[in-house]
Design a protein that fits this description.
The protein has about 150 residues and is α+β, with helices and mostly antiparallel strands. The protein has one domain. It is built from four helices and eight strands. A hairpin with a 4-residue loop joins strand 1 and strand 2. Helix 2 crosses helix 3. The radius of gyration is 15 Å and the shape is globular. The relative contact order is 0.20.
Length: about 150
Amino acid sequence: MGTGHLFEQVRMSLSPESGDGFNTTTGTQVLRVGTREGIMTSKQEATTYLGDLAKKSTVHGIIRSVAPSGMSRTISFVVADTHEGKPYVRNITHLVATVLDFKIINVNGLNAIRVHGVGMDMIFSVVYNLGSALHGDGYYFKSAQL
């Protein structure tokens, strides 16, 4: 199963109405974005986990809301991962926030970070800054929007 197929399934599952985190049609486990448990992570732990992601891994951004002025967005971040040989989607919003010193905010019950600015792809901007902070290479990770 390719990650594109996995993310198509997850796109439908990452809403506040998504249930318990399992896609019952396919049996795919979805780590629910927005839970408040376990978000306290040290900067060293966050750096270690994100630093271990393979070069050119795709970090997917989910735009949760846009300010009425259009000057900021709230975005959640996820990556495809495996656990015991089974693919799932891991919410890394709190790890990204920890490494880049963003504040985690709650948007309709889901965790996100607020990114200010206009005139460019803000998901790319955060992923570029993440690659720069962890590896000194802004293009270390790929970015995509879900």
